[in-house]
Amino acid sequence: MSKYYLNYLDELESEAIFVLREVWAQFQNPVILFSGGKDSIVVTHLARKAFYPSKIPFALMHVDTGHNFPETIKFRDDLIDSLGVQLIVGSVQESIDQGRVAEEKGKNATRNALQITTLLDAIESNRVDCAIGGGRRDEEKARAKERFFSHRDDFGQWDPKNQRPELWNLFNGQQFEGEHFRVFPISNWTEMDVWNYIKRENIQIPSLYFAHEREVVWRSNSWIPNSEFLKLDEGEEVVTKKIRFRTLGDITITGGIESDADTVEKIAQEVSAMRQTERGNRSDDKRSETAMEDRKKQGYF
Amino acid sequence: MVDNNQLLRFTTAGSVDDGKSTLIGRLLYDSKSIFEDQLEAIETTSKKKGHEGVDLALFTDGLRDEREQGITIDVAYRYFTTPKRKFIIADTPGHIQYTRNMVTGASTANAAIILVDARHGVIEQTKRHAFIASLLQIPHVIVCINKMDLVDYSEEAYNEVISQFEEFSSKLLVKDIRFIPISALLGDNVVNRSKNMDWYQGAPLLHTLETMHISSDINKVDARFPVQTVLRPQSDEFRDYRGYAGRMASGVLRKGDEITVMPSGFTSKIKSIDIFSGEVEEAFAPMSVSITLEDDIDISRGDMIVRSNNKPEAQQDIEVMLCWLNNSPAKPRAKYTIKHTSNEQKAMIKEVLYKIDINTLNRSSDDTDMAMNDISKVRIRTTKPLMVDPYRENRTTGSIILIDDATNETVAAGMVV
Ligand SMILES: Nc1nc2c(ncn2[C@@H]2O[C@H](COP(=O)(O)OP(=O)(O)OP(=O)(O)O)[C@@H](O)[C@H]2O)c(=O)[nH]1
Ligand SMILES: [Mg+2]
């Protein structure tokens, strides 16, 4: 192999760092959308690298549904402390209390869709002109269509049929007052790449990703964690299983898989043999064929 | 991770319905890169739409409108790995209305797969895409003559398309062109060798993609470092640190190199090349690094650090091949924002030298309007100099885009001649 050539992880890392620096140079008030999941953790790690030896020059924004894994919140707060950056929290509970949104009703009610309003309100009230996300194109078919620099109109909406051309690495972040951008530095990473990178960089991730004993309920083909928000249906029963999570979202909708993988090495190995996509366990994506596209058009992550 | 750690980016091209998305679906399916839940979802949708088997194009045509209309509208990116290589695929639309999305997907590709329907042969849209691929200097082109199942796998039909394509491509600057007869629908010569075309001696598509030589595609000669931003940490430990952050566009820079900062012309020496984990001896494309210099000179975003004995040209009058990408045509003498590496200036299209007729590749200097999808050679005047190289020598420092400040849209893409 020739000497002046990067292996693929270095190439993906370099691309992401380039994108993060473009964000800093082109926008007035960018934030990282931080969910506590592995992708936003990797983006935060990349931001550290992009601006080193300076601190990460922007805030982290968390949209808190109130339906969290306690582990995620602790992890978030520890990370904020160690990085010395500002945390902005948009609270779905507050949006509900203020009457901005109404809680869904019925058996499959979640706060997933309510996040959109909270997110857009937080973007507006903090005058954010660019929200950096950990979205990856390999996650989902609508995300596969996303640009690195993805424009949102002044209602926060995505127009997938009318995206700006994006050539080479020349990113156009120009916008009018009230509009904003979503930027996805790890667009080109796969789930496998993320795990290989976490392993290589020795990045800390919440314990939820590792196999652990937990009380769960079998529902729509995955193990939903028991929590104060869970209402048992007839015939459902709480059992204790050794599970781990492939993605982290709301505690009410994130299904776990049975697993013994308790180290990053074992997880990477397990993921490489998986026959289901990581979002296969997310009931939010299963609501309809174009569930993700429809939410994204309204302003979802 | 030892031998398949090289990344190949490729794009599809060709006219509407020639089978691009089906081919990508087939490639993913036969190389076992499809997950069970994805397959189930697509089986369900195919059944709902009344298809006999699974519609492989649905793996990439993920938008609601695409599925309703059965066409690709915007680029879909897909990823897969074989024991030999990692791939990033951009599946682009064939419809002329969405040419700008095809250009988007093609601009970063190392290889283009151009599909031609064996029944229809080379048509205008095939030519347009082949021409765009050559303008973008995509180093490798694979022409897949598709739907061979519909022409009885006939060698004559295959040869006929080849001669049509070669007649056109002889006028293009493409170094590496190969031809493969395939059926995307049935899988002939995609991953597995076809049993229906004994007369074809070459390799199937996947093998071709896996073995293509790509490490010489990057310019390793001309050191170009566009400065993205300046790092000035406010900490005690790094009180005097002033790092120029950016990504190497091409070539190599080493600690101790004599450099010139353009356009100011100030010279200095490289004191250190830093990344998060520490200092490195050298930086090469496409590494993202931070560079410090021996002298305190005024450098900011948009400047370029180059080796003193190999400089690009600082130009204010630039000749480019311009692809117009917007519904509203170019306004003569209107001002646009021009972006070139990290540099951003105002620019005006001073003169349209000629427009290209896609069918004949003839140049016309009578009709100089620039509407959507037109490709013309123009002269652009910028308010301040840009440090450009010819695009054929450097894809990064030879490319520009134009933005209309009235709409903020990217309206054109240009390659420096
Ligand atoms: N018989 C036959 N049909 C094919 C073959 N490849 C594609 N098709 C059919 O051709 C039609 C168009 O295929 P697509 O893959 O959507 O074409 P496309 O090039 O992606 O079209 P756009 O993206 O809209 O430009 C579909 O009905 C396919 O099933 C083939 O090898 N043989
Ligand atoms: Mg298609």
From TrEMBL, chain A:
Residue ranges under compositional bias (Basic and acidic residues)?
A: 276-301
Annotated EC: 2.7.7.4
Keywords linked to the UniProt accession: ATP-binding, Nucleotide-binding, Nucleotidyltransferase, Transferase
Q: Start and end of every Phosphoadenosine phosphosulphate reductase domain?
A: 29-254
Q: Which GO terms describe its molecular function?
A: sulfate adenylyltransferase (ATP) activity
* EC class of the enzyme, as a word: transferase
| UniProt keyword Nucleotide-binding present | yes
Outline the segment boundaries, as ranges, of region: Disordered.
Answer: 271-301
Which family does the similarity line name?
A: Belongs to the PAPS reductase family. CysD subfamily.
What protein is this chain from? Answer: Sulfate adenylyltransferase subunit 2
Q: Which organism is it from?
A: Flagellimonas profundi
Read off the lineage from the record.
Bacteria, Pseudomonadati, Bacteroidota, Flavobacteriia, Flavobacteriales
Automatic annotation (TrEMBL), chain B:
Which Pfam family is an annotated match for this chain, by its short name?
A: GTP-eEF1A_C
Listed GO molecular functions?
A: sulfate adenylyltransferase (ATP) activity
Tell me which UniProt keywords the record has, alphabetically: ATP-binding, GTP-binding, Nucleotide-binding, Nucleotidyltransferase, Transferase
The EC class name is transferase
- Keyword Metal-binding listed: no
Q: Which SUPFAM superfamilies is this protein grouped with? A: EF-Tu/eEF-1alpha/eIF2-gamma C-terminal domain, P-loop containing nucleoside triphosphate hydrolases, Translation proteins
Give the transmembrane ranges: none
What sequence ranges are listed for the domain Tr-type G?
Answer: 5-220
Q: Which CDD domains match?
A: CysN_ATPS, CysN_NodQ_II, CysN_NoDQ_III
Q: List its EC numbers.
A: 2.7.7.4
Matches recorded under InterPro entries: CysN_GTP-bd (IPR041757), CysN_II (IPR044138), CysN_NoDQ_III (IPR044139), G_TR_CS (IPR031157), GTP-eEF1A_C (IPR054696), P-loop_NTPase (IPR027417), Small_GTP-bd (IPR005225), SO4_adenylTrfase_lsu (IPR011779)
Q: Is Nucleotide-binding among the key words of this record?
A: yes
The molecule here is called sulfate adenylyltransferase
- Per the UniProt record, the source organism is Flagellimonas profundi
